[in-house]
Amino acid sequence: MSGKLFSQNRIKVVIILAACVLLVFFNPKGFFNPIRGGVLEIIYPFQKTFYLLSQKVRIATGFLNSISDLKKENEKLISENNALSSEIIFLKDTKNENDSLREQLNLIPREKFKLEASFVIGSDPQRSGSWIMIDKGNPAGIEAGMPVIVSEGILVGKVAEVYGNTAKVDLLTNSSSVINAVDIETEAKGVVRGEYGLGALLDMVAQTDVLNGGDTIATSGLGGDVPAGLLIGKIQEIRVTQDRLFQQAIIMPRVKYADLDVVF
Fold first, then answer.
1. What is the CATH number of the domain that holds 167?
2. Of 195, 142, 152, whose CA–CA distance to 171 is shortest?
3. What domain range is 15 assigned to?
4. Is residue 91 part of a domain?
5. Is there a domain that residue 49 lies in?
6. Comparing C-alpha atoms, which of 196, 204, 184, 197 is closest to residue 249?
7. Could you list the pLDDT tens digit for every one of the 264 residues in the chain?
8. What are phi and psi of 187, to 5 degrees?
């Protein structure tokens, strides 16, 4: 019974306090001005503190939001910059390929050959200079045995294997490469063999033929697989075979095979 009475008294106290607060707050006819003023005077420091604190919280929240927005904007700009950089690199590569192709086409003797321009897309991983891969294959009419040249009609090898859209080219330095050749200055004939990627050797030249250092070696056209008149290189060194039946000459290629980018 006492507990119930206590609860009722507490409710009455709460109601009275609430009524007093409402009367002070609404202040009818200014009756409670003195009381209201005193209350406001008491809570003013707390009100000011809470107000300043809320202002700082608002500013901090706005600052954090601005940082978040700046971060998102920065990420967007970085993404756009990366995309533009990739596009610039792609355009530069395309321009370089086009410039290289245009230069090569201007130097190729087009009136003599039916040409198919191809870009080099791979090479011997052992860096031995034995073969390269090009980006043309069966659909482009590429066939095994076809000669492969660069600017000014310089022979660099022959097509060895043909695939769907690519082909493998054995360079003149490949050990399987054998090309009928002739000394342009003296008309001495022989065959140019590959030296396991290390170089090319003019072999099987009769002792009665004349070879001179610096002479130009070109294809002779014998055998019919490679047209006559394609440049191969220059004689660097002359020697005699061990059986002394033939002469040999080390050939310095006209181009660096490691620098090939466009072939025909």
1. 2.40.10.340
2. 195
3. 2-60
4. no
5. yes
6. 204
7. 455 545 666 676 667 666 665 555 555 555 555 555 555 556 546 555 665 666 666 676 766 666 766 777 767 776 666 566 555 555 555 555 555 544 554 444 545 567 888 888 888 777 667 899 999 999 998 999 999 998 778 899 999 999 988 999 999 999 889 999 999 889 999 999 988 767 899 999 999 999 999 998 989 888 888 888 888 989 999 999 888 889 999 998 888 888 888 888
8. 65, 20
> What's the start-to-end Cα distance of the chain, in Å?
112
Cβ-based neighbours of 88, under 8 Å, separated by 6 or more: none
HSE toward the beta carbon, residue 250, CA cutoff 13 A: 7
Residues facing residue 107 across a β-bridge: none
**What is the tally of structural domains in the chain?**
2
Q: Answer yes or no: do 134 and 253 share one domain.
A: yes
Helices and strands in the chain: count of H runs, count of E runs: 2, 12
- Looking at the domain assignment, is residue 68 inside a domain? no
Q: Check whether residue 215 and residue 116 sit in a common domain.
A: yes
Residues 240 and 116 in one domain: yes
Q: Which two tokens stand for residue 156?
A: 């660099």
Answer yes or no: is 217 within a domain.
yes
Per DSSP, the residues of 121-133 read: EEE-TT-SS-EEE
* Domain identity same for 119 and 41: no
Angle between helices 33-107 and 2-26 (to 10 degrees): 80
Q: In this structure, are 168 and 254 located in the same domain? A: yes
SS3 annotation, 92-121: HHHHHHHHHHHHHHHHCCCCCCCCCCEEEE
Specify the pTM: 0.59
